[in-house]
Structure formats: structure tokens, C-alpha cells
Amino acid sequence: MLFTKAEEAQIVSAIKEAEKGTSGEIRLYVEDFCLKDHPVEQAAELFQLFGMYQTKDRNAVLIYLAQKSHHFAIWGDSGIHDRVGFQFWEEEKKILKAHFQQDMAAEGLCKAIRLIGDRLRTHFPADDDHNENELPDEIIYG
Q1: Domains of the chain: which residue ranges?
Q2: What is the secondary structure of 61-73 as a DSSP string?
Q3: Which CATH architecture fits 5-141?
Q4: What is the average pLDDT across 99-104?
Q5: In terms of Cα–Cα distance, which of 75, 82, 78 is closest to 116?
Q6: Minimal CA–CA distance to 121: which of 19, 9, 46, 6?
Q7: CB of 80 within 8 A of CB of 24?
Q8: Cα dist. 122→47, 55, 80, 102, 141 in Å?
Q9: pLDDT tens profile 111-142
């Protein structure tokens, strides 16, 4: 397992906090090895597999991590991607890469998740009366 129970709790808490004030959804998928040529292909496939495209505003984000093959990717649904494009994720990717290289994955994920939440709030502010949590916040292990 990549994360201790305390780190898992920190990450899930970061997801819950990041989703406050936005209709956007964030999920984290962790597995040992990426079996695709490019981790973004795996992230896109998992995004579909878990039905993350079914959010009302098409604004879900998947962070994909293959711990033993040292790969990661961020996949945003069409609602968010149409507004921000590929460059939107560069800062989050830099944070993740730097923290993974220092063996501080949980801290890096929490920082990236908070940043994603900030950006989702900018583009998809929540309707406080109808802001349901459309996707589970728990880490998915493959």
C-alpha cells in the first residue's frame, strides 16, 4: 500500500474540502503499474469505467497514480476541459512530480487536490442549495 491510514484520511479530507463551494468532483485512483503506453490513456479509460462522465456539469477530475511504474496523469471531463484546455493542469502536474520525487506523495496529492478545488470553484461555483456529492470521495485502489 502506498499510503498509511493517516495519509489516506488526509487525502480524502483534502478531496472533501476541495469539493466545497464547487459542483466539481475529484477522485483519486491508485494502482501499482500502468499497463498502457501513456498514463493519460489509462486515466481516460478509468474515467469512463467509473462513470465519472455522468456528473451533471461534466466537471469531474480523476488523478491517476501508478506507484511502482512511477506514472501519473490528470484527466478532466469535457465540461472543465472545454473551458480551460490542457495547459490548465500544468501547475498540478509540477506539484505532483516534485513531491513524488521527494517521496512525499500524500502531501503532493493534497496540495494538487486543493489547487484543483480552487480552480473548480472559479469555473463551477456551487449552488449551495443543490450541491450534491455526485461521486464518492474515497481513494480507489486497483
Answers
A1: 5-141
A2: EEEEEETTTTEEE
A3: Roll (3.10)
A4: 92
A5: 75
A6: 19
A7: yes
A8: 22, 18, 11, 30, 30
A9: 999 999 999 999 999 987 677 899 999 999 99
pTM: 0.95
Enter the C-alpha cell of residue 45. Answer: 479509460
**Predicted confidence band of residue 1 (pLDDT cuts 50, 70, 90):** low
Alpha helices in the chain (DSSP H): 5-19, 39-49, 78-84, 90-101, 105-123
- The grid coordinates listed for 25 are 468532483
- Residue-wise pLDDT for 27-72, tens only, equals 999 999 999 999 999 999 999 999 999 999 999 999 999 999 889 9
Closest by CA to 101, choosing from 70, 127, 126, is 70
* Separation between Cα atoms, residue 140 and residue 112, nearest integer Å: 17
C-alpha cell at 66: 501508478
